[in-house]
């Protein structure tokens, strides 16, 4: 039996989201139907809306969902109706990357997350009038009152933390924290510079503090966000508007250079500055899908054992990483709720405008209580 839902649909490039009735299929054997409570919005959603990433339209986007399990397929055993869950990225579950606990680098990462369909090419969502819609974005399409997720990207969470703050753990906060704690594996006493202190960058700053890094440098052009970075764990800040040479400014703080750089900004000048700030054998990680187009790097600048690595989803195993972040939140060590601003689902376009302009750090849509 299908279920009536309401979803925010983007019909064409640069069009606003329009909330309208849709029909969601009964979950297949390996799927989970989730009643959405809240969902974060992310730059990736905006990139698809504006076709900077060529996912097909018309589509239901959204990939930072949190909600309550409504129904489960016949082979799903780890969750049951009534459970609180967070939805994360999707993967095939069978390739070498998935089998080696690096599902974020799944061989079918594009098909699983951006093709607008299940991995078999079908869609479990249609318009009320039978209109074909692209859905299953990141295996969830959480801009909908009901989302059809897969067992692999549905993570059960405890009930003692409000669901409406948990959605961003499935992507943005996981990406920043995982980049530091998993992909780069920043250690005790280390030094790190984080370029860009939006949602992903500030999650990275908090994670670096969790890792007991000694020097944590936040680099941005927004003084308010730099001030917040200091409150959340940064030891030093560099306002890129006020210095002629960002790499030199970082080296003034860490004379031999920093052991780790994480770029969340995608700005090509930060690739140059970050490499210039690296210590011998330093590691530079950048969040994949950011735009470093036009950047050219002289490979000889990495001859002192430095490395450059693209990072997707923090290389995190969501079933482990999301509960870990919640535990850190309970302990007061990862106060990600300070980054969140709430909007009613019907105000989705305003939320995108505010997030895109930088007026808010992480916009979270709350769904009406049914």
The topology string of helices and strands comes to EEEHEEEHHEEEHEHEHEHEHEEHEHE
Strand content: 25-35%
For the termini, the CA-CA separation is: 19 Å
Report the average pLDDT across residues. 95
Oligomer: single chain
Main pleated-sheet profile: 7 strands, mixed
Shape: globular
Are there runs of 5+ residues with pLDDT below 50, and where? none
Strand element count: 17
Radius of gyration: 20 Å
The number of helices is 10
* Helix proportion range: 10-25%
Q: Structural class, please? A: alpha/beta
What is the secondary structure topology, with strand pairs?
Elements lengths: L2 E8 L7 E7 L6 E10 L2 H7 L9 E2 L3 E9 L11 E4 L8 H4 L9 H6 L10 E3 L18 E5 L3 E4 L14 H12 L7 E5 L3 H12 L4 E6 L2 H10 L3 E4 L6 H8 L4 E6 L4 H9 L1 E10 L19 E5 L6 H13 L9 E5 L3 H10 L4 E5 L4
Parallel strand pairs: 10-11, 10-13, 11-12, 13-14, 14-15, 16-17
Antiparallel strand pairs: 1-2, 1-4, 2-7, 3-5, 3-8, 3-17, 5-6, 6-9
How would you describe this protein?
Helices cover 25% and strands 26% of the residues. It is α/β, with parallel strands linked by helices and 370 residues long. Strands 3, 5, 6, 8, 9, 16 and 17 form a seven-stranded mixed sheet that branches. Strands 12-11-10-13-14-15 form a six-stranded parallel sheet, sandwiched between helices. It has ten helices and 17 strands. Helix 5 links the parallel strand 10 and strand 11. The longest helix is centred in the last third of the chain and has 13 residues.
